[in-house]
Structures are given as structure tokens and as C-alpha cells.
Amino acid sequence: MEIAANITLSALAQQFLVGLSRTTILFIVSSGLSLVLGVLRIPNVAHGSLYMLGAFLCYSISLFFGGGSTGFWMALVLAPLCVALISLAVERGLFCHLYDREHLMLLLFTFSFMLLFKDLVKLVWGSDYRSLSAPEILQGSFSVLGMPFPRYNLFLLVLGPLVALGLWFLTNKTKIGKIARAAAVDREMVAAVGINVSWVFAAVFVIGCFLAGLGGALVAPTQNITQGMDHTLIMETFLIVIIGGLGNIWGALLGALIFGLTDSMGVLIWPQFAIVFPYVAVVIVLMFRPKGLLKATW
């Protein structure tokens, strides 16, 4: 077990970019969880299962449209929308009746849905691995200081900030975003002025689940699509939300950045213990900022 020595500048730059591209996926999924947890106060353990469902749906929809570039782009749009529709049915059918229950019941309820989605995926897609190719325009790589960097990862690096800006605009500049923030603070007062809080919560829940499905669709070309891909991710996203600040979009981005970069740099510095680096970073952050890096916005 030796710590890597003589790390080159090109290797450092490549791992930094890899960490940034992983940050994009972590941020998109964790920002959806942050919205749901911040507004609805629901610790949605099934959020990772929706991410997994988004990846499998992306695979199937892409095949339905013939694969290739057309299939991928159609799947990237339709898979998160399908996840959003499923989440709307779950929210209107069940969750909307449980908002006043204690957190332990909500936690157990979402845990049961995690198990349900796991069995659903196994029933529909089986236990085999699935793989999906990136569209032709995003295949291949380009050189970064003499080392290859995938074009698809560059696409993720561009998409991440766009999603962050879109979420900031949604929560701070739109009517639904302002109402959601007010409902998170005092739902009774919002209901008293004639606003249907139930449908506001439904909209927030669907947006959060859409982001989980989008993260799953985006990660599909970068790794094997399989059962269990949700387990590690849901733990990571909860930690990201905690260290970033509840409901804070920029906090989720900062937390994802810490997690993604420490993970990728750990692979370069000490590969045998790379998995430990992000969690050590979380412990250090919480020691000095137990309420999160940025102020909770809800």
C-alpha cells in the first residue's frame, strides 16, 4: 500500500476534470433531494431508486428509438419525464396524505418505495448489466496536457452550471419558487391566503424526482446500468445536502464539488483508500460547519 509519488501535472489536470464531471451528476441528483427535503421535509430514501430508474428508462427508450444519437437524445428528454410522471402518481396517490406525519413514518414509507422500485427494476429489466453508448458527436476524446479526456465528460461539465443557474432562477425568480420557499417556512400562512399548498408540494416533489431521473439518464453512458447503482449514490447525496446547507442550491453544488474532487484526487494520490477521501472531507466540514457550508434557505 504505497501512496502515489511523482504525480504529473497532466495526470492531476485529468483527474481534476474527471472529478468535475462526476460533480455534475452528484449535483443534479442532490439538488433534487435538497428541494424535496427542504420544502416538503421528506427524507426521500427512494430518491436514489428514481436515479436508477432514470438510467434504465434511458437505456430502454434509446433502444425503442433505434439507438444511436437520435435514440440517446430522445431518451435524455423522455426518461426524466417518465420518472417525473411516476413520482407525480406516487405523490398524488400516497405522499399527499402523509405530510403531517412524523419524520420516522415518512422515512419508513420512502424506504418501502425504495424496495418496491428495486423489485420493479428486477422484474422489468432482470439482473443483467446494461450499457448505453454516448451519441456520436460526444464519443472520443481530446487531449488535456497530453492525456485523453472524454468528450462526454466535457458535455457534463457544460451542463452542470446550466442546471444550477436554471434551479436558481426557478427557486428565486419564479412565482412557484417563491411560493415553495414561503410554504417551506410557514405552510399554514400560505394556505390562509388561498394558495393550494398541496399542489405546490406536488410540483416541488416532481421537480426533485425529475432531477433524479435526469442524473440517471446522464450517467447511463459512463458506467454499467445495474441494480444497486442507487445504494452508494443515495448515501452520497444525503451527505452532500447536509454539508451544503438544507435547500441551498449553491450549497448542493459546493458539496458535490467537494465530494467529486476528493474522490477523483484520492484515486490519483492513494488508490487503495480512494473511497475514504470524500467521507474524510465530510467529517472535516461538519467538524467546523455542523450546519453546512452555506446557510439553509428554507
TrEMBL record:
Single GO MF annotation: transmembrane transporter activity
Residue spans crossing the bilayer: 24-42, 49-66, 72-91, 103-125, 152-170, 190-218, 238-261, 268-288
Biological-process GO terms, alphabetical: amino acid transport
UniProt cross-references to InterPro entries, sorted A to Z: ABC_transp_permease, BCAA_transport_permease
An example Gene Ontology CC term for this record: plasma membrane
UniProt-annotated location(s): Cell membrane
Protein's membrane topology: Multi-pass membrane protein
Keyword vocabulary terms for this entry: Amino-acid transport, Cell membrane, Membrane, Transmembrane, Transmembrane helix, Transport
Pfam family name, one: BPD_transp_2
Source domain of life: Bacteria
PANTHER family assigned: ABC TRANSPORTER ATP-BINDING PROTEIN (PTHR11795:SF442), BRANCHED-CHAIN AMINO ACID TRANSPORT SYSTEM PERMEASE PROTEIN LIVH (PTHR11795)
Family affiliation: Belongs to the binding-protein-dependent transport system permease family. LivHM subfamily.
Protein name: Branched-chain amino acid ABC transporter permease
Organism per entry: Desulfomonile tiedjei
